Amino acid sequence: MTVLVTGGAGFIGSEIVALARSRGRDVRVLDSLRPDVHRAGAGHAGGWRAPEGAEFVRGDIRDPDVLDHALEGVDTVLHQAAKVGLGVDLADAPDYAATNVVGTAELVAAMARAGVRRLVLASSMVVYGEGVYVDGSGRRRRPAPRRVEDLEAGIFDPVDDIGQRLAPDLVTEDDALEPRNAYALSKLAQEHLAATWARSTGGTAALLRYHNVYGPGMPQDTPCAGVAALFRSMLARGEAPRVFEDGGQRRDFVHVSDVARANLAAADRLEDLQPSTARAFNVGSGAVTTVGAVAARLARVMGGRELVVTGEYRLGDVRHITASSERARSELGWSAQVSLASGLREFALPEASAH
Length: 355
Prior knowledge:
Elements: E1 2-6, H1 11-22, E2 26-31, H2 42-47, E3 55-58, H3 64-70, E4 74-79, H4 93-114, E5 118-124, E6 132-134, E7 140-141, H5 148-152, E8 167-169, H6 182-201, E9 204-210, E10 212-214, H7 227-236, E11 242-243, E12 250-255, H8 256-269, E13 277-283, E14 288-290, H9 291-302, E15 308-309, H10 326-332, H11 340-348, H12 350-353
Parallel strand pairs: 1-2, 1-4, 2-3, 4-5, 5-9, 9-13, 10-12, 11-15
Antiparallel strand pairs: 6-7, 6-8, 12-14
Helix pairs in contact: 1-8, 4-6, 7-9, 9-11
């Protein structure tokens, strides 16, 4: 049977397609080749080619006819197609809703029509909102959104009711979901749609909550560019990388090859889930770092200018969000293999890593 990878021409999707083909799987790619996503490669929009042996269907995931065609003979869908980004600009809210929510709704409806019962969904850490913290008494807490007056005063870390700094901890899949921007809301809606589909059809779904994905092929100079790509572009232009707040925001950067492996591991284990089940899995490297540390490491590797700590902030940003990926290790047999040091070096100097 065939695996369908939606968004399979994109950054993560193309890595999944290549890995699946290398393992001898029959793969079909569905992608609309949106120019705002594929801007970095001028040839993409008019002539993207799937890897040898993979079939390519160009079309919009919101089109039922396209979906019906793409799902013929498919037994598993790896759903990567989405509009990504920071989610802090309300002007983008209609596109997030139309692409991510409506697109996923059309997909699961088409899967129900086609009798496809296996789904791996690309979700995101953003569904958690702010991370989990521990107060002075050892109690786990989820703080309220940070106050403007604190941010203006340079107080970036969440505090408790008496003003004491909370210590960041790792979120688990059982922690509450508190999306805090339009993008995050759309990703949570995708999860709910997948769960509704599973209950309605007896299907099984793995909801993979990606952390900060980086690596070769990462979009550059587009609205989809992640923070690592933004830093690399600044350095390549001879500029100093600029970080918001004090650069101490804790994140987990996971290599795209590890994310591709997580997708195939989840696809292989879907049959182990009870019918009508949607199960969430954090997908992170397990190595906690900071945004400032990533910028500084890229600057050193590229021989660029030192980072600039701006003290600026964006409402809607969260301070710390890192997660435990123990469930993926124990239930999917997956764990990250690429270290941050080697992955960032390859990312910063792709030509050197090829020799």
